[in-house]
Each structure stands twice: as structure tokens, then as C-alpha cells.
Amino acid sequence: MAREFQRGHKAKISDLTAGTDLYVGVQIAGPGLTFDISCFGLDANERLSDDRYFIFFNQPKSPEESIQQLGAQAGDTESFRVTLDSIPAHIQKLSFTAALDGAGQVSQIGPGYIRIVAGGEEVARYSFNGSEFSTERAVMLGDFYLKDVWRFAAVGQGFDGGLEALLKNFGGEVAEEAEAAAPPAAAQAAPGFAPPAGGAPAPSFGAPAAPAPQQPAPDFGPPQGAPPAAPQAPQQPVAPQAPQPQQPTAPQVHNAPTIAAPMAPPPGPVAPPGPPGQPQAPYGQPAPGGFPGQQAPQAPPYGQPAPAPGGYGAPQMQPGQPGQPQAPYGQQPPGAPYPGQAPAVPQGGGPGLGAVLEKYKEAPTGQRWTPQNPKLVRVDLGVDGQPVLAKQGSMVLYQGKVDFSYKGAGFRGRLTGNATGQEMQLMRCAGQGQVFFAENSAHLHPIELQGDAICVSAESVLAFDESLQHEVRRIEGHGIPGGALFTMQFQGTGTIIVKTQGTPVVLPVTPTTFADANAIVAWSAASQVIISSQVSVRRHAYPGHSGETVNLQFRGAPGNFIVVQPYEV
């Protein structure tokens, strides 16, 4: 039985199958969409350092044929053969991608998948659909990567550019397009491990074949009896369930601006419920009396004058909508809704629910840390598998299988934190999925460190990669009111999320740079910080002071900086 993967999940190939000769099938399609499905063979730095391992329609196999593009077959839009034990040592990762060729967006696709077949049996499948994406034009589907052993990761991340942008992202160079295209792989003889020809037609979007194989399965390739290849032409999506008199045609189902069904009935006069025992007009048709010259078969409602002939001359009008006539019967006095009836929904003209919520959709980037808006940040724990340390209670949403545990500082750490005021109450987030962090609508700023260091007050830290080293650092000087003599220093490779009240300003360090100790947020660790006091004996002899008696002075070489927020703690 195939193991179902969710976005961000990973597993060892050896846990899925003992074989190394694998079939990888991809199903992705949408109305009027054409996709280029490719495989990038990347080095240890996740770069395409050898363009011979960019497997696509013009280069269907690697030099030693450890990676081969097979074409459409067995219900898959595209398929590959991967022989793991034949891949050269300098190739550490295989990234399977799909990019649009022509107009369109990935959000228009129907249900799709990437699957792994070994020994004639499907062992893994990651399913996705267009609702997981927005305006992207490409998607990174899944990865094979070498981390002591070969593993599989379900990625499912959208990418803004097309195939050329993907190629540049992986460090490749885009050559001039040749006039003559390479012959299609389908014209070649089918390999021995390919699924048998014939069989039942493939259902929509490549659903798995139900019947069991009737003959021994080959050593590799899709299961026997699988449906034949689905054509590249757009497939017909499943018709929506809700009855709509003016429903668009089926091929436009995935072009809708939202996946939510419309909450309002189609434009036109809506017949209110009539009196008990009175037959209702058919759905979408006006009630009797709604056409010129036609009288209502029912007596006028209580307290209402008889409707004028034609139904359009009724004196009562719907509140807030001048010129719109009421239904000819079954209504309460003007301004009062029918008992138990919800207020009428305005008809036509306005944007749909999806168009209104479009600007609030999740912003996938394929990166580990992604700001969703100025006050919300998302971390993808599945990008490199490293846990995250975050302030306790700062998680507002998560997806996937994520474990949250208490992260203690130890006896010495607690003692140091209490003595210096730099104690951080942390939790550890590990697993596979995405976690969203926020706190009190504070502005959040991801700062990526590449072996350098930064000093941040513990109060201004929301989350950071566990790979970063952090320690308490003492500020030189004679003292600051309130005992704020210390700060936290973070160093290493990773990202730290700093929070501020309002939009901060970043200034370069000069010999005359001073900052309020209560407004400073962070500074480069190479800066020299000393306490500057303007308090004098004479000033103490008189009541009152300026409120700016103690500041921090910064000195350092060019390139150092400070970050100050428009708020004093």
C-alpha cells in the first residue's frame, strides 16, 4: 500500500522500498495549461553545477542514464526512471519540478500528484491541488536528496517564474532557443520496465488503477494494468456539486477566483417564502404576479394594499435599495423582514469572496522563513529539517506534524538570565510542517546570519534557528537605571526573528552615534558600546531633568549598524 505524504514530510527511501531502480510519475494538468516537467540534478550546494544533469524535454537522460525521462504513460503526465545506485557522487539532490509553458497560473490546476513505484508497486504518493497555490507559474513537487542515505521529501512549493527562472534559481544558464526541437520521447520504443500497453482509459487526474495485476510485475516501473498515459491536453475537471442556473462551463472550474462556492443565488428577483399551503414558484423564476398584466392568485397580505397590475407598481420598496420592487406577496410591512428570514444578499456586480480574501492568502516562497505580513512570519520546518526555538506562546498557527516541547536553559542558564535580565522562556518546534509566529501585533523582521554576529535584547527576540549560538554579553559602563547592563549575542549560520514596536530605523555607526537604552533593539556585534551619562552634581541640585540622562554610545569601523524602534520599553 502506498504511503501518503503531506507537504513537508520526508522519509528514507529504504523505509519505502528495498529497491534502488525507481519509477517516478507526475500527474499535473489544468484547463488550457501545458507544463514542462523536469528533473534538476544538484550538487551539495543545491546548484546545477553540471548542466548534463538537467533532465527535460531536450535532454531526456543523464550521461550514465541513471536519470531518464520516459514521457507520458500509465496515467502520468510525465514519468522518470531513477537508478539511485548509479547516480554519480557529485549529484546530491534530484528536484522534480513542473513549470507552465504559456499563460496561466498553478492555482488553475486540478488534483495532481507525484508518486514513486518500485518493483511494480506504488510505494509513495504526494497529492496536491490548485487551491494550495495562487499566482505562481511553477511548482517544486518533490526531492530525492542524499543525507547519509537517499531520502524523499514532499515539497509542494510554488515558484513565481517559469522554467527559465527555475533554471536560473538553481544556478544554470539559459541558452538561446534552438529552432529544431528534440524528437519526443514517445516516438522511441517503450523500455522493458514500462507499464503494459492498453488497459482501461485513465480516469480524471490519474486516479490509481483498481484491478490487481494479472501477470508478474516487472522489477521496476508502474503497477501492471495501470491506465494508459493521459494526454497533455487539458483534462475535464469534476463538475461542481451545487446547482447553479448560470454555472460556467466545466473547463473554467479552476479559473474561478476562489475555491469557495458562491453564497448568493443567481442574479434576478428572489421569491420570498409564501404563506403556508401556497405552492412556491420554481427556483430562478419570479413568483406569480411578477410579470406585467398578471395578477397574484393570492389575496394581498395583511396590512398591505393590493399590488398594482404587473407586479412592478407595488408601493413598498426594499430599504436601502431604491427602485427595487418587493415580491408581490408574503412580505411583512415595509422595512421588516419576513419572520425567520435572513437579510437579503445584494445581487450581482460585487467581487466574490475569493477576490476579497486574495490579498490575505499565504505567501509561499520555498524558503525556510517567509514573512506573511509585517506582523506574521512562517517557518517551514521541512526545508532543512532543523528545529526552531521560539518564545513560549508565540505560535498562532501550524500545519503538519510538529512537536512543541519546553526548552530549558539549565540551572546555570536560569541563574544567569535572572541576574542579567536576559532570560528567554523558549519552546522547541520540531517535525515536518509550517509554523506561524506572532506576538501582540509587533512588527517582525527576519535577520539572516552568515557566520557573523548580532546583539539583540532578549525581550526583542521572537524566534531563531536552533543552529545559532547565543550567550549573554555585558555592556561596558558604570550602570544604567533599571539594571539593563547586558544583552544577548547571536552568532553562526541561521535566521533570527527580531520584533519591534513600529517600523524601526537602521543607522550606520559613527563616532557620534548615541541611542536611548530603552529604544535600541539591536546592533552589530563588532560595534563597541559604552554607557554615556549626562548627569552632573549641579543638575542634581535642582528639581527635574531632561529624561535623556543615560544613553548608549556606539563606535566601530564602517559597516557597523544599530537598529532603533520608535518606542521606549
TrEMBL record:
InterPro entries: AIM24 (IPR002838), AIM24_sf (IPR036983), Stress/Tellurium_Resist (IPR051324), TerD (IPR003325), Trp_RNA-bd_attenuator-like_dom (IPR016031). Residues 179-355 are annotated as: Disordered. Residues 180-209, 280-297, 314-346 have a biased composition (Low complexity). Pfam families: AIM24, TerD. Residues 210-231, 263-279, 298-308 have a biased composition (Pro residues). Residues 1-170 form the TerD domain. This is Stress protein. It comes from Streptomyces piniterrae. The lineage of its organism: Bacteria, Bacillati, Actinomycetota, Actinomycetes, Kitasatosporales.
